[in-house]
Design goal:
The protein is an alpha/beta fold. It contains 23 helices and 25 strands.
């Protein structure tokens, strides 16, 4: 019997690691490259647009291979993740020069997925990168939504319809579900990037333990989530998934909150789509509601705005608190301009904290953290004692991060290198030994020039030069015309066409000092920088609390800017059942009018006693659908805390907004357009309440026309 052919040692190691991560594209560090082989090479070659080559695999012949330079990983990795691939990074776990065996030890250090990503190139700046966990128990579903890049963690529990609405609002990049529920998830919620886990990852006791450990608490009662057992199972499974992808101890995930169905306005996925809240149905950029009203100065505020739009609130006290803050900035140009300037300097602090939590914050990101922390006290001073109760209460929650700021300022060089080993990162005076090694390293050029001048004078070789390369280190180069003048104590190392290169004992000793100094500089800077990261990690909870406050200020001041520029009014929201809009305008359409054109405003009046139903009729292109959407968008904006495009608005709060606009055939299920319309309308009728706003546009198109509200 013939002996089976074996892989070469390197490829044997690769396939061994690949077997442990079969669902991931494996990037395998080999020297200065990350390489992929076999089927993974075909994927990386196609997605990244790089050359597909082959690597010798001994008796087995050649294996497909594709590689990228290790220093370009940040450039290529986002392309794979955004293409929907899970990517495992396999690094060298020891210095090849110090390796005892011929084969360097390697292991997976990080797994990145569409829902677990941290690098800027993998994330949409103004959107959350939600990872969602789902747990099923008969008709009930528990959901957990986690953005590991910001630390935002939310849970909910309810019917499949309710969770489907949340999925439409959050638009998660990845779902984590029990392995035996894959089919049910696709049937209930449609097509998502799904990762299955074993059922034991969703067991309540172990899930609760993982959550308590992650949040560093003995009980979860303080978060108000104890009555959501299925949601907690999902949340615990997400923490396990982070561990599985080598993301442990993320201290930016330090809180969890519940999504209470009774506190938010219900909008199903059809409503979100039909009102074009987050995207235009025509695919035109800049024509969705969020495109028009997003005037935030930071990515943090932009993400919060999207959260508010996806889940408007019904609490009138909370709405009036938001209106009061908007009114303050609306009435005070100076504070408005200053708060926007300060917040723009804060930048995306939430995601910088995430990279600090993973220990991967780069020196220049540390300097952005410093700039962000510098804005905290000015923001607090600007918004304190304004006489606006809501603003004063909000700003009192800000934490003092002055001690950490001082530590960063005293530790970091003013203009640090991009990474340790590429130039100074730590400031002079922080460590005496570090300063001494730097003096030795930076003073080397002068020393070498002095040595060169001395040897020229001693030997009479006028063309003598001292050079350096990675093969021989420092050397003395002598042209052939002066070869006879070379001293006997010099050792020849290389012969060129017109010259020869030599080394001396003095030169080699000095080279060792330089190399030793550079190694020591790297070691000392790494130690000091790691200690600084540890200090940042201790303050993550406080900084994150400040991020939440600054995000709210950003959204509310942005509302004020929009109100000033677009002549929006402050709505009055009461406990009544009247919707009274005077001279209302469509917030998007009015921004698209040609120069010289004006949007024609419209009045709408509905109340429970007299005018519960309004029927609109008229020719095509008369503005019926625009008025329907305009009414819903004004209500939606009012219940996020924004001023609205109208002369005046008085309304009772709504608990649900439904739309049915422009259905199409669902051929795959054998449903005609009329059937789809009837099913959607039936769903609305079954979920109606006394405080629902319903907009139906052209029911039964092709047979009869009924536009209603």
């Amino acid at each position: 019997m013939a002996k089976p052919k074996e892989d070469t040692p390197l490829l044997k190691q690769y396939f061994s690691v690949k077997a442990q991560n079969p669902d991931a594209v494996l990037l395998f560090r080999v020297g200065d490259f990350y390489e992929s082989y076999s089927d993974d090479a075909l994927i990386t070659s196609k997605v990244l647009g790089i050359v597909l080559t082959r690597k010798s695999n001994g008796e087995k012949g050649d294996t497909p291979m594709a590689g990228i330079p290790y220093h370009a990983l940040a450039q290529y990795l986002p392309k794979l993740v955004r293409a929907g691939y899970k990517v495992a990074i396999c690094d060298q776990l020891e210095d090849p020069k110090l390796a005892q065996a011929k084969l360097v030890k390697r292991g997976v250090t990080e797994i990145l997925t569409p829902g677990v990503a941290f690098g800027e190139g993998m994330l949409e700046q103004k959107e959350h990168n939600w990872l969602c966990g789902l747990t099923f128990d008969n008709a009930e579903v528990g959901a957990a939504f986690l953005d590991a890049s910001t630390g935002t963690f939310r849970v909910a529990q309810g019917s499949s319809d309710y969770i489907s609405t949340l999925l439409a609002s959050f638009s998660p990049k990845e779902l984590v579900v029990q392995r035996d529920c894959l089919k049910a998830v696709r049937e209930r919620f449609g097509d998502y990037y799904i990762t299955p886990l074993e059922e034991w990852a969703f067991v309540y006791d172990s899930a609760a333990d993982k959550l308590r450990s992650q949040l560093k608490v003995e009980s979860l009662k303080g978060f108000g989530v104890e009555n959501f057992p299925l949601a907690l199972c999902s949340a615990g499974a997400l923490i396990y998934y982070l561990e599985q992808t080598h993301h442990t101890g993320l201290q930016n995930i330090c809180s969890i909150s519940r999504i209470d169905e009774s506190k938010f306005v219900w909008m199903d996925r059809f409503t979100i789509r039909n009102l074009e809240i987050f995207a235009s149905n025509a695919g035109k950029e800049g024509t969705s509601l969020v495109d028009v009203i997003d005037r935030c100065s930071s990515p943090m505020g932009a993400r919060l705005l999207r959260s508010w739009l996806s889940m408007p609130i019904m609490d009138r006290a909370a709405l009036n608190a938001r209106y009061d803050v908007v009114q303050f900035f609306y009435d005070n140009d100076g504070p408005l301009d200053e708060i926007r300037r300060l917040i723009s300097d804060v930048g995306d602090l939430e995601r910088i904290l995430a990279r600090a939590a993973t220990g991967k914050i780069l020196p220049r990101e540390m300097m952005q953290l410093r700039r962000s922390l510098r804005q905290m006290e000015p923001v607090k001073a600007l918004c304190s004692e304004t006489g606006i109760e809501a603003l004063d209460k909000l700003i009192k929650g800000m934490k003092n991060c002055g001690k950490l700021l001082s530590r960063i300022e005293s530790t970091m060089a003013e203009d640090p290198a991009a990474q340790i080993g590429k130039g100074p990162v730590i400031a002079p005076g922080v460590d005496k030994t570090l300063d001494e090694y730097r003096e030795l390293s930076t003073g080397g050029k002068d020393y070498l020039l002095q040595m060169q001048a001395r040897e020229v004078e001693r030997t009479g070789i006028s063309s003598l030069k001292i050079g350096y390369n990675n093969v021989f280190g420092y050397y003395l180069e002598v042209r052939n015309t002066f070869r006879d003048q070379v001293p006997p104590e010099w050792h020849r190392k290389q012969t060129l066409v017109g010259a020869e290169r030599y080394i001396t004992e003095e030169l080699k000793e000095y080279e060792q000092k330089i190399l030793s100094a550079e190694s020591s500089i790297y070691e000392i800077e790494s130690r000091i920088y790691a200690a600084l990261i540890a200090e940042v990690q201790k303050s993550i909870r406080d900084i994150k609390a400040n991020c939440d406050i600054i995000s709210q200020l950003d959204v509310l001041s942005g509302f004020a800017v929009q109100a000033i520029e677009r002549r929006y009014c402050r709505p009055v929201v009461d406990s009544g059942s009247v919707l009274d809009i005077k001279a209302g305008r469509h917030p998007v359409i009015e921004t698209l009018m040609a120069p010289g054109e004006e949007y024609v405003p419209n009045d709408v009046h509905l109340d429970s006693s007299a005018t519960q139903i309004m029927i609109l009729t008229g020719p095509n292109m008369a503005g019926k659908s625009a008025l329907l959407r305009q009414t819903a968008l004004i209500v939606l904006m009012a219940q996020t805390g924004s001023f609205v495009p109208a002369e005046s608005v008085r309304m009772g709060y709504f608990d649900k907004i439904f739309t049915r606009v422009g259905a199409t055939d669902n051929i795959s299920r054998g449903e005609s357009t009329f059937m789809v319309e009837m099913l959607e309308t039936s769903m609305i009728m079954h979920n109606l309440s006394a405080r629902s706003l319903v907009l139906l546009d052209e029911i039964g198109r092709g047979t009869s026309t009924y536009d209603g509200m």
